[in-house]
C-alpha cells in the first residue's frame, strides 16, 4: 500500500507554480506503479473486426498487458466505458463505424476522452495518418506491423501520458 500513500502525498497539487502537464504525468506514473503493486497489468482494448489480426495483436501484447478485444466500433464504445482501459489500439476500416468515428465519439465523452489511442491500420497514406492524428490518436502504426515495435510503441504512449 506504499503506492497509495505516495498517490495521496504526491497528487495533492501545489497551486503555486502548478505545471499541469507535469502533474498529469506524475499521477499517471503513480497509477501505473499502483497497478504493478497490486499485481495488475495496464489494460489495453484492442479493436479490430478481423479475428486473426485481433488475436495477433493480443498475442503480441499479453505478456506485458491485460488485453481486452472488441470487434466493432459499437462494442469498443461500450467496452471502453465499462472496462476503462489504459490504452486503445484501433483499426480504421471496420463495418458500421470507422475507427475515426469511434475515436471522435471517445473524445466527446469525459470518461473516455483522455484514453490514449493508437491507430493500427492498413491505411498507410500520409493523409490517413494525418487524419488519425487530428482525430486525437497518440500514435499510428501501419499493418503489417512488427509485434515488438507495437509493444514498444504501446509502452511509450502509456509511459508518456
Explain what this protein looks like in three dimensions.
This protein has 161 residues and is an alpha/beta fold. It has two domains: 2-37, no CATH class; 43-160, Response regulator (Rossmann fold), CATH 3.40.50.2300. The chain is 52% helix and 14% strand. The chain has seven helices and five strands; from the N terminus they run ααβαβαβαβαβα. It has helices spanning 2-10, 20-37, 51-61, 73-83, 99-108, 126-135, 147-160, and strands at residues 43-47, 66-70, 87-90, 117-121, 139-142. A five-stranded parallel sheet has the order 2-1-3-4-5, sandwiched between helices. Helix 1 runs antiparallel to helix 2 (20-37). The longest helix has 18 residues, at 20-37. It is globular. The mean pLDDT is 85.
Amino acid at each position: 500500500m506504499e503506492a497509495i500513500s505516495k498517490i495521496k502525498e504526491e497528487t495533492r497539487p501545489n497551486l503555486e507554480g502548478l505545471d499541469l502537464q507535469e502533474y498529469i504525468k506524475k499521477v499517471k506514473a503513480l497509477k501505473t506503479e499502483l497497478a504493478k503493486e497490486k499485481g495488475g497489468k495496464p489494460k489495453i482494448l484492442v479493436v479490430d473486426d478481423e479475428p486473426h489480426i485481433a488475436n495477433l495483436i493480443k498475442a503480441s501484447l499479453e505478456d506485458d498487458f491485460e488485453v481486452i478485444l472488441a470487434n466493432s466500433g459499437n462494442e469498443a464504445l461500450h467496452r471502453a466505458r465499462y472496462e476503462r482501459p489504459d490504452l486503445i489500439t484501433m483499426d480504421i476500416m471496420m463495418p458500421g463505424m470507422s475507427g475515426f468515428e469511434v475515436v471522435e465519439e471517445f473524445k466527446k465523452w469525459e470518461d473516455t476522452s483522455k484514453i490514449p489511442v493508437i491507430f493500427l491500420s492498413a491505411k498507410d497514406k500520409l493523409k490517413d495518418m494525418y487524419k488519425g492524428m487530428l482525430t486525437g490518436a497518440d500514435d499510428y502504426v501501419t499493418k503489417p506491423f512488427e509485434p515488438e515495435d507495437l509493444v514498444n510503441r504501446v509502452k511509450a504512449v502509456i509511459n508518456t501520458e
